[in-house]
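Q: I have 318 residues here and want to know how they pack in 3D. Can you give me a structure?
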Amino acid sequence: MDPLSDVLRAVRLTGAHFFMTEAMRPWSVRAPAALSMAPRILPEAEHLIAYHVLTEGELWVSNLGEEPVLLKPGDIAVLPHGEPHQLASDRVPRGELHHLGNAPQPFPTLKRMGPGPGEGHGTTRFVCGFLGCDAKPFNPLIGSLPSLLVLPGTGDGWLAEFPARAVHESQAGGAGSLTVLTRMAELMFVEVVRRHLESVRGSTRGWLAGLSDPVVGAALTRLHQDPSRRWTLVELAREVASSRSVLAERFTQTVGMPPMQYLAQWRLQLAAELLARGGQKVSAVGAQVGYESEAAFSRAFKRSTGASPAAWRKVRRA
């Protein structure tokens, strides 16, 4: 399995919330940090990713304090860190400022904004949604993404059909609609990340950039393929046909931590996944991800998450 697929599987993407918005110009809405809405829309989520899909009209999106970006029909805006942001009909917001403090009820709810009938002009329609994912013990993907990702136009292929199909599915509300919408949102996010990965090739900073680096990418692949192996820097360098010093320097500069520290963090993420979905003993989970003793595993896990492996499993299952 490639590292990106491995991370996406381990951090458990889940569709949390999905609603439609219809606005008449002029309008503007300010959204708080997505995680502040988690207790109402996905209480068990450690982190929320916000996204907006424009289906009609145009809108400006920006993280607060940053330059706004214009969206056209078919564009997708993803806020991986779920930071406070603003959507508006104009580059300089006009009209009543709405606050999205309480996320509207999910589909088929339609949130309306702007002047009343006959008072405004130009209709904008867009989909708002949230994806939940794990942040602890270790999520290298989210930290490597920018605060705002905009996919300008969805081109051709299945992603071009996502806005229309999402709207249709939300309005139809048939059996299994929530599951369908969740899977569609997950696929949308994965595709946005894959396209962003193409744009960062040649970059020297970030976990995603590391995937395309011939030395760092090869090292990440080896570590993800066999995380329980008793790796040493010397062995890893030999596997990727690099010197120890070059590997250590390039890996640390790109990913932000040395290879062995990355491996230790990733092992804990794998352990968290095993604890959440299985009934294995704590000692067995630790051994499966490369720890020689239960005590060493428990200390490392609690240091990273703030909870013992047993307590972590209890909370996740609840």
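Q: Anything worth noting?
A: The chain has a mean pLDDT of 85. The domain at 258-318 is CATH 1.10.10.60 (Arc Repressor Mutant, subunit A).
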